[in-house]
């Protein structure tokens, strides 16, 4: 009766641990480097640590995310655990303080193939007379191949590369090549003229574009 008179609801108040649950879980993905980010809870507590788990959509069991148990960071690199770009994934995070564990907080359902952004390709430019040759190197994922080198994003995602040829900071021509072409040859240029080139990665299905690369400038002979 005392609880009713005083307006108390026994068992209804949130536990103090849930004041410590992490906030705003969000995957950020660039070149299939899939990193889960979150924010500190509103309640400030010293010595707060976080633990992360992940699973493939449809699986019943959660897996502890390696290197992300009892961490103080506000992020966890899940690239290896989410390495198949055609799978859907979930992650969840909880905090631990002297008061105990918070509840688990669930991420959105993450689909790498749709959600990753790409860097522009690297380009190496050489000139012969009035011909410019552009060597195109696709960005690389954090995943390692059999020989230990990092896998190119084009092994996991079809891309095209757009090369912008700029003259006098105004005139601009656009060339497009698929990811199988390692080199673009631009002919018929003006002699003794400086051209600058920038590159962009394009996802053909969605039309999403990367930022432009820094300019690489070269002069014809």
Automatic annotation (TrEMBL):
Superkingdom of source: Eukaryota
GO molecular function terms listed in the Swiss-Prot or TrEMBL record: cytokine receptor activity
Residues of the Fibronectin type-III domain: 18-104
The Interferon/interleukin receptor domain, residue ranges: 116-220
GO CC entries: plasma membrane
Keywords: Disulfide bond, Receptor, Signal
Any matching Pfam family: Interfer-bind
PANTHER family given in the database record: INTERFERON/INTERLEUKIN RECEPTOR, INTERLEUKIN-22 RECEPTOR SUBUNIT ALPHA-1
Family: Belongs to the type II cytokine receptor family.
Protein name per the record: Interleukin-22 receptor subunit alpha-2-like
Native species: Sinocyclocheilus rhinocerous
């Amino acid at each position: 009766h005392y609880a009713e008179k005083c307006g108390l609801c026994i068992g209804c108040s949130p536990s103090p641990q849930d004041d410590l649950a992490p906030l705003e879980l969000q995957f950020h993905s660039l070149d299939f480097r899939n990193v889960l980010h979150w924010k500190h809870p509103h309640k400030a507590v010293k010595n707060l640590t976080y633990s992360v788990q992940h699973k493939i959509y449809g699986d019943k069991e959660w897996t502890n995310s390696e290197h992300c148990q009892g961490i103080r960071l506000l992020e966890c690199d899940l690239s290896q655990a989410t390495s198949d770009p055609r799978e859907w994934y979930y992650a969840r995070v909880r905090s631990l303080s002297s008061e105990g564990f918070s509840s688990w907080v669930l991420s959105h359902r993450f689909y790498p193939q749709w959600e990753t952004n790409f860097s522009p390709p690297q380009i190496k430019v050489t000139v012969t007379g009035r011909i410019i040759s552009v060597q195109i190197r696709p960005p690389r994922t954090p995943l390692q191949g059999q020989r230990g080198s990092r896998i190119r994003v084009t092994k996991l995602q079809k891309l095209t590369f757009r090369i912008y040829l700029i003259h006098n900071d105004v005139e601009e021509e656009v060339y497009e090549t698929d990811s199988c072409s390692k080199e673009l040859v631009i002919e018929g240029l003006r002699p003794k003229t400086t051209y600058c080139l920038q590159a962009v990665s394009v996802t053909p299905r969605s039309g999403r574009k990367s930022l432009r690369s820094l300019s690489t400038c070269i002069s014809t002979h």
